[in-house]
Amino acid sequence: xxxxxxxxxxxxxxxxxxxxxxxxxxxxxxxxxxxxxxxxxxxxxxxxxxxxxxxxxxxxxxxxxxxxxxxxxxxxxxxxxxxxxxxxxxxxxxxxxxxxxxxxxxxxxxxxxxxxxxxxxxxxxxxxxxxxxxxxxxxxxxxxxxxxxxxxxxxxxxxxxxxxxxxxxxxxxxxxxxxxxxxxxxxxxxxxxxxxxxxxxxxxxxxxxxxxxxxxxxxxxxxxxx
Length: 226
Description:
- The chain is an alpha/beta fold.
- It has helices at residues 44-51, 74-84, 100-110, 115-128, 144-156, 174-189, 201-204; strands at residues 2-12, 17-28, 33-37, 59-64, 67-68, 85-89, 162-166, 193-197, 209-214, 217-218, 223-224.
- It has one domain (2-95, 143-224): P-loop containing nucleotide triphosphate hydrolases (Rossmann fold, 3-Layer(aba) Sandwich), CATH 3.40.50.
């Protein structure tokens, strides 16, 4: 599905470069569930943002669905991101002024999905996530777990090939966190590729492979969990 080759990310000052990522080479196959682990400041979120095309690497090559992301124009990158990638954030990133229904519908508006189709798709995902009764509420009226559920529903409504999750249970209690991880596991079993950044060893074990980052480098060969 995606290949990173010799990816560096650095910031230049007058006399030096500060490296966030160094020499990252990684292949992710369709259907994998990968956990990226490492201490704070190790480059985990930066790596996730590069994979999600929210940031550009300083050097190296990135191929996504056989397209050379490092060479294509920003407009084409944006289309790839919108059509194939769903993002789930630790802080939910829901739009406060929109209802649950409207938040979930947003990605479909960007993709110009027809109104009748949108209604059917949102109704289906509300039912699937068991949040039909919350559809007219606003984010501030929901618990943290419910907000994250809406964030995931929004991420998956357009059936992305890849879900990127940055500390998806970081603001949740342990029970809510388990429910979210079990939901990811089900989505993965249904065929969605997932890459998550996590500090939690327990959450990491829901995946099929663990990648360890230390000081911006892959610490060792990925460990298989299956």
